[in-house]
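#lab-general

N.A. 3:47 PM
ok so I finally got the sequence cleaned up, no stray characters, all 469 residues accounted for. can someone with queue access submit it? mine expired

B.Y. 3:52 PM
send it over

N.A. 3:53 PM
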Amino acid sequence: MTRFALLSGLGHAAFVAVGLLIYVMATRIGRQRRHPSAAMGWVLAIVAFPYAAVPLFLMFGSRKFMRPQRRAAGMLAAGPALPPPPADVPGPAWATRLLAGMELAPPVRNARTVFHAQGAQAFDGLLATVASARHSLDVCTFVFGDDEVGRRVAEALRAAARRGVAVRLLLDAVGSLGMPAHLRRALREGGVQVRRFMPLLHNPLRGHTNLRNHRKLVVADGERLWSGGRNLACEYFLDRPGLPAWIDLSYEIEGPIALQAAAQFAADWQAASGRIARAVLPRPLQPGPAAGVPAQWVPSGPDHADDTVHALLVAAAYHAEARIVAVTPYFVPDDALLDAWCLACRRGVQVRLLVPERSNHRLADWARARALRELAQAGAEVWLAPGMVHAKAVVIDDVLALSGSLNLDARSLFLNYEVMTAFYGPEEVRWLAGWCGAQIAIARRFEARPPSWPRDIAEGVVRAVGFQL
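B.Y. 4:20 PM
back already:
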C-alpha cells in the first residue's frame, strides 16, 4: 500500500511537472505574451487541479497562431500581401509606421465612404451591397439572428446565389448558436456556402474554442465593403415594440480596402476549416482615386503576431495632443492601456469615454467599474448613455479615427478575431468625432464613488475571471 501510494504520488508529481513544461513550452516557443494575472492563474490551476487544467490549457490556452515575420535592419521584409505604402496617402506617421512594422497592409485611397448612424440606413446599405454583387459575395458575422433581419438577409443571400454569384457565409459557432439549423440548411440548399467558425466540439489542433471570430463584414466582388459593429440581427438595426434598436455604427466603403477585406475573409474561411493562413490579396491592389478617402484595414487577433489594435491605442495615447474620444459597449482594458489614458489626462489631453449606463452583459458592467473610477479620478470625462450602445469608435485629435468590431475589453483586445478601419481623412475624422459628441450630449456624467469592500472584492474577482474568459 505504501509503495502504491509512493508511486501514485510520483505519478501525480510527474503529471504536474509535464503540465508545467507544456505551459512553459507553449508560452515561450509560441511567444504567447500574457497578462500577469492570466499567467499566474494558469500556473496555479495546473499545480492545484492538473487533471482538469492541463486539458483546458490545451483547448483554451493558446491565443496566437502567427509569429512575426523576419525583419531586416528594423524594417518589414517584403511579402506578396504587403505592397510598399503609397507616398501620397496621408495619416500620422507614428500610426502608419507602427502598423507597417506589425506587418499590416498600408493605407489606401477609396472612391466613396458612407457612415451609418441609423439602423434603417445601415440595413439598406447592407442589402444594397448584397444586391450589387456580380461575381462573389463574402459575409462574416458573429450573430445571425432568427428574426426579421436574419430572414431578410438570408433571402438576399439566396437571391444572389440564384443569379450566379459565389456566396460564402462565415458564422461564429458560439455567437450564432441561436441560429436554427433549418435556416442554415435553407441557405445551403439555396446555393450559399456556409461554414461555422470553431464549433464547440472540434479538433483542438485546428484552433481553440476560446478564440472567437467577432469580425463583421460584407464584401461584394472585392470592390465594395460593408462593415462596422453591427451583427445580423434585429436589435442592431430595427426598432421593435418596447425595444428600440441599439446605438451602433457601420459604414460602406468602395475602393481598394474592399479587396483587403476580401483577403481577410479568405484567410478566415480557411481558418474555419482548420488551415491557418495569412491574408494574401487575390489580385494586385489597384490604386484608388488621387483625391479619394484614405483608410487602412487594421485586423487584430490570433492570426496576427502582434496585438495590433491594442498597440495602436497605446501609442495613440502617448502621441495625442488635444483629445481622445472613445465609445464602446464594454470597457475592461488592461493596465497598459488604462495607464496610458490616465497619463494622457495628466498631461492635459482631453479624454472622453462613453459607455452604456447598463449594457447587455451585467458581468461586463461589474468588471468595468474599477477602470471607470481610475479614469475619472485621473481627470477624464466618463459618460453613461441612457440606452444600449453597441458602437465602437475612437478618435485621436483630428488625425485618426477608428471604427469597427473591437470592444475596449480584454477579450476583444487580446483573444478575439477583430477588425477596425482607421480613417485618416479630415472629413471622416470630423464625422466620427461629431457623432461621438452627439451621443455624449445626451448622456449622464459618471461620478466616481469609493465602493464598499464587498463590492470592490467582487469587482476584482469578476475582472480577473473575465480576463480569463
